[in-house]
Amino acid sequence: MNQAQPTGDFDGLAALVTGGASGIGAAIAALLRDRGARVAVLDRDPAGAPAGTLLVKADVTSDEAIRNGVAEVVAEFGALHTVVGNAGIGAIGTVEDNSDEEWRRVLDVNVLGLVRTARAALPHLRAAAAERPGAVSITHTCSIAATAGLPQRAAYSASKGAVLALTLAMAADHVRDGIRVNCVNPGTVDTPWVGRLLGRAADPAAERAALEARQPTGRLVSADEVAAAVAYLAGPAAAAVTGTALAVDGGMQGL
Ligand code: NAI
Questions:
Q1: How many angstroms separate the alpha carbon of residue 184 from the centre of ligand 1?
Q2: What ipTM was assigned to the predicted interfaces of this complex?
Q3: N or C: which end of the chain has fewer CB within 10 A?
């Protein structure tokens, strides 16, 4: 995978990818591994994580599980330099459709999951930044739903809007610690998530065509294309980049 990409720019670094057992997270974990990082995948269902990664079974809705998971990763790797907060869930509906309980669930996973991950990781990232200036970062998988009005995605969009604001606030809070914080805003990405969505559609082929047509490039984004953007933001080439949202959306927002 990604053999055309440069390798080695994560040599000696330790990375943690939440939700790294499927789709975008799995592509990120594999790419960071291929570029030289030791990679841990924290996932509630880690079985699908790429080979050669450390599997940590934990749910991001549990503060204790994340703390234990991060401690396990640091015990195994000796340090932590790169955190990718990617675990997320969807919700379909307008504000009239979703119950308070559904809203809380989406915000709990998509927003508080990132907060808990950062809280557990930050002491280790600070220590690592003192030793490897420029090499330490947090990158969130946000969504174009944070900046574009999408129908039937009220709770999901609100959660991703919060992720964008959280990313900017964290970038400001931790810049003096030497920790960069950025996010990627993917459009519709061809992952098992979208497969599940299509599986529930009355006409999956028509639904897929509609999703493809929504992006000016006329196709879905691949998980590897999002992973490449994350590896850029987390890597040494982006040492001057913090507080940025990088859209990987086939032109959906800008065109
Ligand atoms: P996916 O469903 O293929 O993978 C999500 C992974 O997160 C799974 O391995 C799942 O087990 C894990 N996960 C979910 N809830 C968890 C929890 N509570 N604790 C621990 N792990 C948990 O989804 P996909 O498409 O790879 O999405 C990943 C991220 O990308 C999400 O944050 C999503 O919002 C975002 N995204 C996805 C887009 C898409 O079109 N697929 C577009 C824009 C953003």
A1: 13
A2: 0.99
A3: C
